[in-house]
Write a structure and sequence with these properties.
Strand content: under 5%
Helix content: over 70%
Order of helices and strands: HHHHHHHHHHHHHH
Distance between the termini: 41 Å
Number of strands: 0
Largest sheet: none
Number of helices: 14
Length: 280
């Protein structure tokens, strides 16, 4: 029982629950997804791949997490079969993706899309997260793909596409700021492991980038403000979220320097932004 609870913690079950909930809300809001054959298989493939990436992240961060005093499954279980779990999950993701493509009527060549996602995640876990910004941008693009992949495999009218694009931009920039805040939080262990993240190389530039990302989010919001496809309640909702994001960002980067809380705030803002799909 203890092992299962550790597995659930390592796959970040709450994050997976939020992803699953996002797709449930999308299906509820947009009946068009009922015509996307095999949509449940697409959800399953996405969750398997995300869980695999989280397990692999723990596997690659055994020593870093020990320095940062963070939970890591492999501090408690180091057997070969436990180390193989991420790749078992990746394989399960590809099998589930194949069933989706078969039901949706796509060519088997589209499996390369899911293979590419897994390769990006593996490259991130093994290399790019140690470099300046490349890892942060990679994982944020992958979060953005949670929404953009619906444009690839499902059909939406223009009136639906534009609000979903706003949601995708929100996912990218909110997650990018969360990743930067997490890098600040993990500087001690990252420095010992010779990572070259932006908060280690230049904390000032990292803070400026967080503020710049927030400014870009405001620009994106005002760009979408004019579109007739975005309901008035949604505009008010995202404006409130942006005001809170601005307050939290300025407070935690200039006064308290509490990047742990800033990372939590952006995780909440990311979730609330995605939940805003109900208002689109």
């Amino acid at each position: 029982m203890m092992f299962i609870s550790r597995i659930l913690r390592s796959v970040r079950w709450l994050n997976l629950l939020l992803v699953g909930l996002l797709y449930v809300l999308l299906r509820h809001k947009f009946p068009e997804l009922d015509h996307c054959n095999g949509f449940d298989w697409l959800i399953g493939a996405t969750l398997w791949i995300a869980a695999a990436a989280n397990l692999e992240n723990d596997l690659m961060d055994i020593h870093t997490d020990r320095h940062n005093r963070k939970f890591n499954l492999y501090h408690h279980h180091e057997s070969i079969w436990v180390r193989a779990l991420p790749y078992v999950f990746y394989a399960a993701g590809l099998v589930t993706a194949w069933f989706f493509l078969h039901q949706a009527g796509f060519s088997g060549y589209w499996l390369l899309y899911f293979v590419a996602v897994e390769l990006l995640l593996t490259t991130y876990n093994r290399a790019t997260k140690k470099t300046v910004l490349i890892g942060n941008v990679t994982v944020s693009v992958l979060v953005m793909l949670l929404i953009l992949q619906l444009f690839i495999f499902c059909r939406f009218p223009v009136s639906v596409q534009k609000p979903l694009l706003l949601l995708a931009f929100w996912a990218f920039f909110a997650n990018l700021n969360r990743e930067l805040a997490k890098d600040f939080q993990d500087r001690k262990g990252d420095r010992l492991m010779r990572y070259q993240t932006l908060p280690i190389i230049s904390p000032r530039k990292a803070i400026r980038l967080i503020l710049l990302n927030l400014l870009v989010l405001w620009v994106v919001f005002f760009t979408f403000l004019r579109t007739p496809h975005l309901h008035g309640i949604a505009k008010i909702y995202f404006a409130v979220l942006l005001v809170y994001a601005s307050w939290a960002t300025v407070r935690h980067t200039s006064r308290t320097m509490d990047f742990k809380q800033l990372a939590v705030d952006y995780k909440i803002l990311l979730a609330l932004g995605l939940a805003g799909v109900l208002l689109l």
